[in-house]
Batch of 4 targets.
Target 1
Amino acid sequence: MNVIVPRNYQTNARDQAILKIDEGKNVILILLPTGMGKTLISCLIVDGLIENGKIKEDEKILYLVADRKLKHQLFKMSQDYGLGRHGNLFLLPERNEIPARMSRDHARISKIIYATPVLLLNSLIAKTPRTQMIDKETINKVKLIVIDEILDVFAQSYGKKRTKEETIRYIETTWGRSFDDIINELMEQYNEIKKEDIENFVLREFSSKYWRLNKRFEPLLNLLGVFDENSDRIIVGLTASIAQKEKRNLLIKTFGESRAVQIFPTGDDFENYRPKIQLKRIQVFDDWVIDIDKKIQEIKLQNLSVINKTYKILTNREKIPANRSLLFINDILGKKNLQEKIKERTDEDFLNKSLTHASSFLLMTIARQTLLENTFRAFVRFIDKIKNSFLLNNENFQYIKEQMNEKIKEIKESNKLYLSKKEERLLFWLERFIKEGKKVLVLCRFVNMTQYLHNIMVQRNIESTYVHGKMSGNLQHAQIMKFKKGTAKILFASERLIEKGTDLPEADVAIYYGTTLSLERYEQSLGRIRSNYINIKKAYTIVYNQSIEDEKSLKRDIAFLEIFDANKLIKQ
């Protein structure tokens, strides 16, 4: 068995955590960029707390992680490190994988349990004690809870924005430089972008964000009593989202400032392993897609005028924050109490108008994502199913349908397998990388794209595999192992599944099939291929030229490279 030797900064994190626990802190937040071994640090902490008696022989440890797939990775790391010497390790199974009685017995005799919040809660709550997968007496023995990506405890909400002046003060205080200096540095490197556009992007990205407890975590955490300041349970939270300063501060406040502390690991080998990656863009030219994309944007702007009126009626604020639009729209579409308020303050006609425009905005957001990052067939199916009354009477939407039908006719007349310009470009680069002997991770927004692109590779006799969130945890693990072991040279993966916790150092190259503006998610997913200062790799984003994703990817890369430098954040 390979002996795992921790790096200096990892042992430093362990020592800091155990010292703080000895001093009476029992909520420890470990901050470390993606790819630097937070899971191993958690194993070191568990080891140390057992050996110094903080965790007694009859007490248990619970590992919580947001999605099913990552249970396996945490479990495997614990096995490889050797935590099994302290007692049995139990990977809580999905329902019906093993009999409930067997699961309960296994949990009772185990020292460490690995689960997702939803799975554990469902395993505890059952119609009868006999159908429980795990009993409450077992959970009551938990002394230490390790939460991977602990900032997932919070979900984004919408609220009042900072003024421009307040945002500038926040940026200058955070980074220790004047706002003008930051903007001028960005302009020197990205001289093709207008100063005004760079300023607006930075201001928008650092506008105030509001958060609420995540419904996936909240019930279980309340059941475990971890928000009780008198709780003696130890919480070790791990996160790579070190850029989320406000979210981190809220976590400290939620758990209690008297019992919570943030830890930034240090060590003489830190610089060698911190993330470093070369970002590249592959642009695809397609006038048809650009034309449709512009029409979709025009429709969404029409919808926003009504949505902003609705926002003012409910909040007495003039304009909804740009990065909260979808949250607000989902609320007014899904919450009866908000709909009643709109009706009370206006009338039923305006309520119906608000709901129609909110629905249209949501539909066009999905349509744009489908156009740019899914198959043409998926786009056609989606557009054909739309029954929204505003859209059916909208000139821009009618134009989109006409152009789509002409494209369908053109494809049928060609009598050839249709591949979009982006698909063609992706295949060109994949074949090139494979000839160079490289292994490639391709990140897709849509689940069906992972299988669709995999099928194209099969037709071309190129070994690949795919993984997405609709698979069982066991199947996800099996598919990823094909890539890790080298039987598949390409892994097509849904980006939300792969972005947190799935270590893929075997990948030589990453390709984003499209873009996402979320810097937090970008930061997380880039770390999957383990690119650092001693092993720099490349990440490509393939986008349609002059489309909204072209603009977003460029702005996202600027922010990632210049604003969210992990080392700068850690030194603050």
Target 2
Amino acid sequence: MRLAEHLPVLPILLPLAAAMVLALISEFKRRTKITISVVSAVLQLMVAATLVVQADGVADASPAAVYLLGNWAPPFGIVLLVDRLSALMLLLTSVLALPALVFAIARWDRVGVHFYGLFQLLLVGVNGAFLTNDLFNLFVFFEIMLAASYGLLLHGSGKARVRAGLRYIAVNLVSSSIFLVGVGLIYAASGSLNMADITVATSAMSHNEYTLLQAGAAVLAVAFLVKSAVWPLNFWLPTSYGVAVAPVAAMFSIMTKVGVYSLFRLWAIVVPEENFPGLETEADWLMGLAMLTLFFASLGMLAAQDLRRMAGVSIIASTGILLAGMSLGSPNAWAAALYYLLVSTLAVGGMFLLIDLLERIRQFGADLLAVTVEAFEAEGMVLPEQEEVGVAIPAALAFLGMSFVICGILITGLPPLSGFLAKFSLLVATLNPVEGAVQWWHWLLIALVIGSGLTGVITLLRLGIRLFWVPESHARPHLRIIEAAPVAWLLSLCIVLTVAAGPVMGYLERTVATLSFPHDTARAVLDAAPVPSPEEVR
């Protein structure tokens, strides 16, 4: 086989090999570890971009590549699938991982041990979850991702991280157990764990078998919903993400999207092809959960008293919007949801990095003093100087202020940036249902989407006033280029998504068109033939 034919497995092998090498290198050889990690991240970005180009070059619903690990024919062997959706998610992971890694080089990699190795293992789990076409291996990659996230969440130690980490681990262990129960039920109904094989088998199932399959998928969906932080299973997220160090919290913003992605894949198994793209009974409960998630996320935003918690709650709100777009069922809604997935992941990742920089202009006790000033109009307060970190860059305070405004616009969905375009596209799809007229719950969804943006604006304005306006003087911000550049990179990508909204939406519409015919994709996977041995070639 040519090297190009092995591209689908490289997003897994590259970080896995890097993690193995990093485990053998002493913590004192920091530059060597940095070099290996950055090279691995850059190569993953290049591979992901190549796979996106290859996936978009396929004319029909067939996948761009089907990779048979061990050269075993499906459905018995492990299969990696590259189509437009999986390639897009790989690219999103790579463009988020590289700036997070560069940001960590400034100082956060030194507050604990084995940071770079755990970071690479996290990428193994995330990339593997996006590529696998097998339910059991999806569970394996989920566990790799979660095991690495346990160590990364505790990176830097501290009582708050340990307390949040224990809660985070307990919740994910329970969801993993639920995951296994769902996989077992699906296997009992279909006799297979290969997603393509299960998709094809649904057309020949009896009523009882299909009912058991739906029960297994419902149990599996609960595990995915826990990992996606859907209400009422999202109590763990704001605290856990809020205590993580900045580059880890930024990477965690993609982890909830792994659960949403898995729900997209599960949809093709549960909902028969002839029912797509109409709004089916299976989606009613999902829409209800999406609305409740949006509602309680809006309340959480109003109650947030610090930026870290607000950023965590905004992830919950984004999950609600994504599930709402999915449950609408129309191709336009799915495309809008995927576009919003890109924007929200990059914007929240940039926000977590930015918050770490914004804390440098805050004086000790700034939250308490800001509230005091607001309440009593105190004047003449003199605060102690904060320890300087890094080297001053030109117009550092202006950079932080402008970045804060851009992040706020993106997260809340204000015009004219890509966050607004994503929400507007979703609202248009809501008002144009595939079947029937606009129902009352369509208007309720519109009100919740707009309301979540409004509560986000109120909270960010309140926190922004406390941060930039109320203090009479700010500590002089000292930033390093490797800290400011990742934030600028992520926000610039969001602006690029605004300017290139047409081509990006075109790609997403073609992605949804591929997802509309899961049986065609499944048959292409099952028809993949192993590579013949040299003896067979002769």
Target 3
Amino acid sequence: MKTSKVARHLPIIIFLIFTYSAYGQNPMIKQWDRKFGGDYGEIFYNIKQTTDGGYALFGYSESPISGEVSQPPRGSADYWLVRTDSDGNKLWDKRFGGADIDVGIAFEQTTDNGYILGGYSISDTSIDKSALPKGYVDFWVVKTDSNGTKLWDKCYGGLPLASFVLRDLKQTSDGGYILGGNTANGIGGDCSYANWDTSLLSNDYWIIKIDAFGNKQWDRKFGGTGNDEFTVVEVCLDGGFLLGGSSWSDVGGDKTQPSRGVSDAWIVKTDPNGNKLWDKRYGGDQSENLYSIKPTIDGGFLLGVESNSSVNGDKSVPSNGFADYWMLKIDSLGNKIWDNGYGGNGMEEMSSITTDGLGNIYLCGDSYSQASGDKLENNLGVEQSWVVKTDFAGNLLWEKTIRTYGHDERTQIVIGEEGCVTVANFSDGVVGALNSQPPRGSVDFWMVKLCDSTAVTGNSESILTNETWQMYPNPAHDFVTIEKPLGSTSMEMEIVDVTGRIVKNESYYGTNVVVDISTFSPGLYFIQCIADGKVVLPVKRFLIH
């Protein structure tokens, strides 16, 4: 009797679950990867999953019409929004800018299925920019419909020569938006408040609330007597806002707690009208920089911080290298519940924290570390995307280096179906390892979808169940022979040991491939096969004696 796909692979699935239930590297299987860019360079900032299961990616473009860039440049840098289907295939791209520099940083899909795009602009009124500039650098916000067609745009800033740099935005329950960023300038234009430090060298947090059509409703400013760099805003369950960033200030102004070290993570909680309720700082004896806030169902928050402090102050875990990911769980009043750190022997640059429906936590960013500390794989390039998964209490479950032959930065992730993540960054990578796409320009948007092999069931169009691919002998000693699946023209093979470390990754075009394993240590290994861009099940295992 013919068995189902799941039944045929059940022994392997059970074995893999058992093997990787403790901390280790799950054999994350690539489903697909996509690259978007033109002849010059595209700088990625963020990715969101859309309501139809596709993706939207946002940043800025410096390219002429070329590659995936379908519209001519407005100035030397323009906002660039790319929309894809659920398999990462481009549906459309849209470009917005004036005649100078417009840097896209933050965006969201809105409740009407359109998009709100934000960043900073030094362009005068020209081309797509109908809003009058307020200062030298302004917040610039563009609202589009679901097809990326511009509905309106607005500038927010101060007096001439003033600089206001937008870093984040969120839609609010009334259909409006909260915008947040930095300024070192005082009263003027849209800004109603003076800076605490008047040196013009030190920033304060600046937030501005606008309605659904971009009309200003109010603004607020928060800072100490030193430099305070805003990075993120979140809408809270009570309708208020939690603002986050990094502070070099001691007690003074809006900052009520002394500095721990060089810089600290600093958050400010407000009511729905932007009035401050409380503030908290978190740090050790060196530098902490906060990049992400994730609300939790109990009314508290997870904070994603980059830290190079030792055990000191608020930090209960040492750094593995120059800087690590540092995660804190705080309650609704900002009191620390626990903290944990993750890193290798080099530098980890924190980007964001997100969670799945089971309470698991995912941290992502960029890593310069080789295999060491919590990191099990060497980089293939200087800087690679690095994803860490923990349980709800911050205990590390697995980690994954997104290895490419290139330099990859500003990593963000989307959590998909169970066991799957989509990772995006900007990259100068060439073809090899997880990247199958040649470069378009100096750097491109790049995204890759990976699924944990313990959760893959073979129902995806990007997964192929093909029993014709063979590997022998088993057990093996010096060599194994691999016969690629019938009908396929190319094959990528990856061998993974029981810790999840990738010990070999190569592409082949012949029918039978002889793989040298003479340098491998005795033990159990897994072979993952990708034929013509599709993952092939079953994953095969073999012993080396």
Target 4
Amino acid sequence: MSLAQQNRPSVREWIKSGEPVIWLNAAAVTISALAVIALIVLLAVRGFSHFWPNDVLQATYQLPGQAAVPVMGELVESEEVPVEQIRGSGIAYDGDAAFLKRDLIKRGNRDLSGVDFGWYLDTYLTDISKPAEVLVLERREWGNFYGRLVAVQEQGESVVDVAANAQLAQQELAQRLQRATDLFEQIRNIERGEIGSINYAMEQLRLRGRALDLRADEMTAAAMTDARAAIAEERAALDQQYEALMAQLSELYQALNRDQIAVAAVDGREAVIPLAKVVRAYYPNSMSTFDKLGFYFAKLWEFFTDEPREANTEGGIFPAIFGTVIMVLIMSVLVTPLGVIAAVYLREYAKQGPLTRIIRIAVNNLAGVPSIVYGVFGLGFFIYIVGGNIDQLFFPEAAPAPVFGTPGLMWASLTLALLTLPVVIVATEEGLARIPRSLREGSLALGATKAETLWRVVLPMASPAMMTGLILAVARAAGEVAPLMLVGVVKLAPTLPVDGNFPFIHLERKFMHLGFHIFDVGFQSPNVEAARPLVYATALVLVVVVALLNISAVTLRNRLREKYRGLDM
């Protein structure tokens, strides 16, 4: 035996050294990191590629024994299918291939054909081309329209005919569409801004009048008359503002509905589409790479900042982003003091005995309770009991319509605070346990009270542990969906929980949430193929939002840990 073989450790000694465990841990971390990266890449590719303006192909599709059918649309994906499946669907394929390629084409024109997407066997697609004059209309309803521009119209009369001057028709379309878009934005701002504020003020006046009716026995006749006169005067002023705005809206709507375009589908059928219902019009086959990049980023910006439309399969997700973030922030404000107070009591004040151990076991068990149970509890306790009593005590004039006795942002935040409370308690207790007893005794020896010791010595040093608990709470709460379906989240919220009407933050309102939006778009949408890319994109946005919230908490925790680094000494 050589000297090198004698010095080589045996397998048993190698295992005892702990080196295999190190390699296993490194492999596990590497696999986990790769899995996370692969997930993010998958979501990004499947989701954000949806906003790229793909070329539109035109082809002829003719199955054996059937008439030729013209096809126009975007190629979405392709797949291989067994020939047996093709023949089982009634297609008389007589080739010798085992698999055939079929293409999913988004052909749009749902108002004409009834469906947006169709599967086509690649073998029977012929005369494939990408004409430069193909026009794509992204509409506010009925999805995309694929075809050719025939004429630009005003009040039903043709202004520019494509056959006479195609370039002038395209320029006229762009100008009139920009005008229609500006008018649409003005109308929406008036309806949701000024008229929305007037409607809110009118509702407050109605509630004030109802409150006077309920207090009729407590007020004198003169006071009642004066109060009603003040309400009538305010209502008259609001009515005058409302009439002026409605007259302005009438003029804007007349101007908005002035322009239309005549377009022809690939099968020759023509349609007249008002520009008021068009979001954008573009010619993808004639766009340069830079034009497509500009279009892509414009669509991305719309996705992040606009509201959803078309049963949440088009438009943006800003209300869902806003609702998710504000719910998590309110939940954090609620759960942190409750968890810290509970942990301080259990660690610093409660007598350590069987009862305290039982409480700790109960807290740990609460962390494993299914989230839907918390949703049922929130619905029964927070909404029906607490919210119902709040309505009876403070909002009797709103009866029978509930104010806080209905699902809303406040109850959703409280429910998730209760759900994540065990995590904060356990993390804070562990942080308190790490603080040396000598620090407490030194503070007390210098004349500080126990409360001062906790406030000035113990809690600052335990703050990194508190932040760790908050990070874990945010990570879990931001992705929860099941309890929110019972306590406040909705498919589409007409208004945000924050606006310009007093008290500005409306905790009683329902809200949208990214997790529920993913569920709704992915499993409740009537147009599955159109919704699928948005599911991936929204899922990636949810991951990014949770990551940003956690990064903010981690940064704060690291600063606190650096400030109180003497804790580890």
